[in-house]
Design brief:
alpha+beta, 7 helices, DNA-binding
DNA sequence: CACCATGTTCCTTG
DNA sequence: CCAAGGAACATGGT
């Protein structure tokens, strides 16, 4: 469930819960998620360390921590992949089936669970080196966006998923932003005219900001339940559907009427990912 | 059994 | 060398 807004919400939620907590024990249950860091290195580095700030970069979580001996601030990189979750449990609670890494923090334990194990929890920070600007930061300007789009012939929907263009947009919000901007997902990036680039830029900011704001005001279910993961952690006790219906205007709405014109929303595949759009509202 | 799924990386092709 | 496309990764839901 994790695109920028979900990761942002998670970071805000988790930050105060883990800050200044000492890591007493490190349990690596799936070595794949810590690679290329070795189990030995992770344990050696984290055991006894104290957690500090938790921040976000694109879809990545940056866990700052310090070790008592050397006071150099270090970073642990977290990524939720497609199905990752992070949350605290009471020390005595049973572990979830797909717990990948568990950190004992005293009375509680920090859980990184990930059914598909596509996520990461590693000391290797190389993957954030190639990220583009934060979409909600000062570097993501229309000028930057225009120049970057000019260099690509890829369909704009595919290009928006390129984390080197802008960091944090994923498959759901790419469709959502294009729908709001009224731009066809098939349009080549370098064919988009300035007025449309501006609209798309605005739409990206709008859709991400709105998702963060909405997520901030909801009762969230970070550890999940037996429930269908759906598209979010967002899920009140009552269920997810109402909220997602309001929040997502095109994604996963194939065959349903467009909220603007009533035409049927279409689905097709680009780079092996589903794209949803309204053929009438998004012609060029 | 078939197809689908929020993401990234690696390999191949052109 | 570079851009683009697709498969692989691993598990579960429908």
């Amino acid at each position: 469930m994790p695109e920028l807004p979900e990761v942002e919400i998670l970071a805000r939620h988790l930050a105060p819960l883990i800050k200044n907590k000492r890591i007493h024990e490190v349990d690596v249950r799936r070595a794949r998620v810590i690679s290329p860091t070795s189990e030995q290195e992770l344990k050696q580095t984290l055991t006894g360390a104290k957690l500090g700030e938790l921040t976000r970069r694109g879809k990545y979580l940056l866990f700052a921590f310090t070790r008592s001996v050397k006071k150099t601030p270090c970073i642990l990189l977290g990524h939720l992949g497609m199905t990752g979750r992070m949350y605290l449990l009471p020390q005595e609670s049973p572990l979830p089936k797909h717990a990948a890494v568990v950190l004992s923090l005293g009375k509680e334990k920090f859980i990184f669970e990930d059914t598909r194990y596509f996520g990461r929890f590693t000391l290797d920070t190389s993957s954030i080196q190639n990220l583009g600007p934060e979409p909600l930061g000062p570097d993501f300007t229309i000028e930057y966006f225009t120049k970057a789009l000019k260099r690509s012939t890829q369909p704009i929907k595919v290009k928006l998923l390129d984390q080197a263009l802008v960091a944090g947009v994923g498959n759901i919000y790419a469709s959502e932003a294009l729908y709001r901007a009224g731009i066809s997902p098939r349009l080549a990036a370098n064919k988009i005219k300035p007025p449309q680039i501006k609209r798309l830029h605005e739409a990206i900011l709008e859709v991400l900001e709105q998702a963060i704001e909405t997520g901030s005001t909801l009762p969230l279910n970070f550890s999940g339940s037996g429930q269908k993961d759906g598209l979010f952690y967002y899920g009140s006790a009552q269920g997810v559907s109402d909220f997602d219906q309001e929040r997502l205007l095109v994604y996963d709405r194939e065959g349903h009427p467009c909220y603007k014109c009533g035409d049927k929303i279409k689905r097709f595949v680009q780079s092996a990912r589903s794209t949803f759009y309204c053929p009438r509202c998004q012609r060029h």
